[in-house]
Amino acid sequence: MYKYIIRRILVFIPMLFILTIMVFGLAQLAPGDALTGQSLADPNVDPEVYEQQREALGLNDPIPVQYGRWISSVAQGDLGNSLVFNGRSVAELIESRFANTLYLGFFSLCITILVSIPIGIYSAKRPYSLLDYGATGFGFLGLAIPNFFFGLIAIYILSIKLGWFPAQGTMSAPGVTGFEAFIDRIHHMILPGITLGLAGTATYMRYMRSEVLDVLGSDYIRTARAKGMSDSSVLYKHTLRNALIPIITLMGFEIGVLLGGAVITEQVFQYPGLGTLFLSSVTNRDYPVVMAIAMILGILILIGNLLADIFYSIIDPRIRYD
Amino acid sequence: MNKEPVLDVEQLKTYFYLDDDKVARAVDNISFSIYPGETVALVGESGSGKSITALSVMQLINKPGRIVEGNILIDGEEIIQLNPKQMTKIRGNEIAMIFQEPMTALNPVYTIGNQITEILRKHKKMSKIDARDKAINLLKTVGIPRAEEIMKEYPHQLSGGMRQRVMIAMAISCEPKLLIADEPTTALDVTIQAQILDLMAEMKEKYHMALLLITHDVGVVSEYADRVMVMYGGQIVEHAQTKELLRHTKHPYTKGLLESLPNMDEDADRLGTIKGTVPPAYNFPAGCRFSARCPFVMEKCKQSNPELEEIETDHFVRCYLYENEGEQE
């Protein structure tokens, strides 16, 4: 088991290397650089000046040289400086945003798990019941409605009309501390969290339902019943663990899906996370920031898959990596 | 036998209510009794209703199936009207069942030890330690070497034969009065089959159980069963002591089954077969259910279904060929 985890982490290294090439390559392929937008904006500045700037920033060097410079500083933990925000360091820009996005993603994942799995189990226990039909209907809606649209409707109804939840931001007053601040944060995360987790909740609900139904029809469940096990033991001991095996695998990918979805959801709720920073950096062609965020998202997805593999081996004894 | 039967099934009907309003009469008016210490074989082709009969006794019929009518008595106690919770006290405790597929019958994510001890803890209210000791003993009883280690292993680490031994250990753990074995050796290697059957016969003696052996292997029947019931189309068509049934086979279907066995003493080019297949349980012919495949079919057979008649002492047949024999004697 430990050997397996260490081996998986070693495999990370070449994957990270490929990731850096892809991130850098995509940034290079994108048209323009940080100075393009500004030279169009301000006709009074001599284009010659911009050219000098480019030369000074090393933007005219051959691409492999630029890559080598970038990768060696990234390897030393230096993500470089933003080209737009007066040269503030990328690390500084990302730091607080990263934490916000992680909170939101984690919160959303919790909502997804806490809602989808119990409803999925119940739907399978009572197929074709009212709740099952309701859940199916909700599932289709959840998958069909785009995130940003659901977010807008949620803001309009729940925050503007009813005033139950704040429409944007992470905190209401800066002065609060301790437990109150925590509650305030959660309060701010509820709408974006639900919006972000909507599609996932719908998907996992459907998966859970069909997995549980599948397992309930299997031979070993008949054996458990024939042994005289109670309904709750059959469902929660014998069925659940087997039904969760494929769900766990999907959850690993879900981390990537959540972070990708956060880009749009954060924008809708003006939530100061990585997503909003990513979008603004892309429009500003602030490539050091864009590359850093892309790298972070890539690493998180790799970690998500590793976690899924580890959980997988804990829950299913047939998969023990040794 | 004048003892009280362990299992008494009276006019049992288990129907499946399919879509498009079809009703599959999988078990249609079956009555039989099993006495303590007896091995009774239930024989028939796939789809004849053998397994559904067994699952009905266990009350493990899933939707859209339902026991429509009849009584099932375990040790004289009616179990049909028991609620699901009361039934869990009977299953595994008074009647146990072994299934056909040992490869899939054990839960893949729990250890063997966990799966055996849970039944002991449930029915015998044993402590964890007692249940563990008992489980190790049971594994040794069913001939599993390294029992202590096997306790910690998972089903996928064992062979099919070993898994079936584990199933037997689980089934006998609460010393049930009746053990139902639904084709327990069909999925196993031929070399293992005899071992498993011998083990079941041995356990039956040791724990004074009655055994309901479901099989389509007439060879198994002749070796292990005291009594045989032949099932066709959800009904019993012939029922007698094993020797009597094999020597004086009456029903054309039973004859067909026996003729389709290879016989070492005879020099035949081809094995006998029964033409056609079992009709689906929602579409039985109007008369005798075997009439479409029967070599001796008469006009009468197509009109109405014969009753199960006792034509000789303890030899019951459902066939018009023997209609008047019972009366003559």
UniProtKB/TrEMBL annotation, chain A:
Name the family.
Belongs to the binding-protein-dependent transport system permease family.
Name by which UniProt lists this protein: Peptide permease
Q: Entry's CDD domains?
A: TM_PBP2
Q: Where does this one sit in the cell?
A: Cell membrane
Recorded hits in InterPro entries, A to Z, give:
BPD_transp_1_N, MetI-like, MetI-like_sf
- Boundaries of every ABC transmembrane type-1 domain copy: 98-308
Q: Name one GO cellular component term.
A: plasma membrane
Could you list this entry's UniProt keywords, alphabetically sorted: Cell membrane, Membrane, Transmembrane, Transmembrane helix, Transport
Task: Give the main location.
Answer: membrane
The membrane spanning regions, by residue number, are 9-30, 102-124, 136-158, 186-205, 243-269, 289-312
Which GO biological process entries does UniProt record here?
Answer: transmembrane transport
Q: Which PANTHER family match?
A: DIPEPTIDE TRANSPORT SYSTEM PERMEASE PROTEIN DPPB-RELATED (PTHR43163)
Topology term for the membrane: Multi-pass membrane protein
TrEMBL record, chain B:
Q: Name one GO biological process term.
A: peptide transport
Q: Which Gene3D superfamilies match?
A: P-loop containing nucleotide triphosphate hydrolases
Which GO terms of the cellular component aspect does the record hold? plasma membrane
Q: What SMART domains does the record point to?
A: AAA
Keyword list (alphabetical) reads: ATP-binding, Cell membrane, Membrane, Nucleotide-binding, Transport
| Domain of life of the native organism | Bacteria
Q: How does it sit in the membrane?
A: Peripheral membrane protein
Q: Where is the ABC transporter domain?
A: 7-258
Q: List locations, semicolon-separated.
A: Cell membrane
- The answer, when asked if Ion transport is one of the entry's keywords, is no
The record's annotation in CDD domains points to: ABC_NikE_OppD_transporters
GO molecular function terms listed in the Swiss-Prot or TrEMBL record: ATP binding; ATP hydrolysis activity
Q: Which family does it belong to?
A: Belongs to the ABC transporter superfamily.
Protein name, UniProt field: Peptide ABC transporter ATP-binding protein
